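Anyone else keep sequences and structure tokens together like this?

Example one:
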Amino acid sequence: MLELKGICKRYVTQSFTQVALDSVSLSFRDNEFVAILGPSGSGKTTMLNVIGGLDHFDSGDLLIDGISTKDFRDRDWDAYRNNRIGFVFQSYNLIPHQTILENVELALTLTGVGHAERRQRAREALE
């Protein structure tokens, strides 16, 4: 489903280059539960940002269902984030005045799913 092939990501300032990902290759199977562990500064967040399309890699390739993302445009990344991947941030980023169910429903609201289906899918996800 998801494969990283030789992914490199560097952050460059005027006089310094920080290598965040150095030729990372990794495959994730469908329905696989994975934990990404490592010390601070080891590239975990950078790798997750690349996988989530929040940051772009410098070289290598990210394949989604065998399709390269090298030529993805902004709208392709938007569709991927809306329909294929989800994030649970470390600090949760929940909207405090909404219920848990309403917070889960929010992402589906942005994709145009109707209220009844949105509520049902959110409940199933929470169960």
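And example two:
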Amino acid sequence: MNSAIWIKIIRDARWQLLVSAVLLFAFAWLFVWMNSLIQMGLWSTFLDMLPNFVHKLMPVSVKELLSPTGRISLVFVHIVPMIVFVGWALVRGSEMVSGEIESGRFEVLLTLPMPRPVWVCIPGILTFLGAMTLAAVLWAGLWIGCHQIRLTEQVDTTRFHLAALNLAMMAFALAGITSAISACSSSRGKTLAFATVIFLAAVIVKLVARLWTAGEWLKYLSFMTLFEPQILIFSQESARISLHYNLPLGLIGLVGHLIAAAILTRRDIPVPR
């Protein structure tokens, strides 16, 4: 019976995973190629023209961003990969409970002789593995691009793997939050809306904490404060700092899925209209 559940969940997620992986690989390669076309003087002039508050938002120094490694590191905070990873988290987390209820499938599936937490644990594991796979694909696109395309300086792509892991763990944390919301709702649309608002609020709180010196304490209210892939790239103690950022994100994702499993165990499943 467990194998049938695994097959079902994999079948539900396969197209999103495949399309997301293709987009990430192609974008990573193109990002390296586009960076090879940018002249250092133009890039330096662009950064100098930015207002001071933008410099405060940068997690690393301008000197580090001017290097080939720094320019390529922007791929981990670029809007395209962020949309893909956030989309993976929101779609998978919202489908876990409220999506199954809204489609009417849970009315039948929960009659099977299986503990209810299984319907959260297995999708949660696949969500985590999917996020890790997407991170590996993004890193592979950068690796191939850096070895195929001539850059002004050699780029050490091994410095990117912890940043890719940070991106995957951020997605897993958001998926855990979304799954907990999903377990409380019977509407997938409401789940997506609420989880999106939480994500945007977390990003805004992080930005405010970075810009407002007196409000630096606000960073503890946002899980996105733990998303700092560029710091992991340039830190001299990246392995130790990686635990500081990635372990709490993983715990948030795990706790979110455990809460979802506990709620699903006790809640009634309404008949879809």
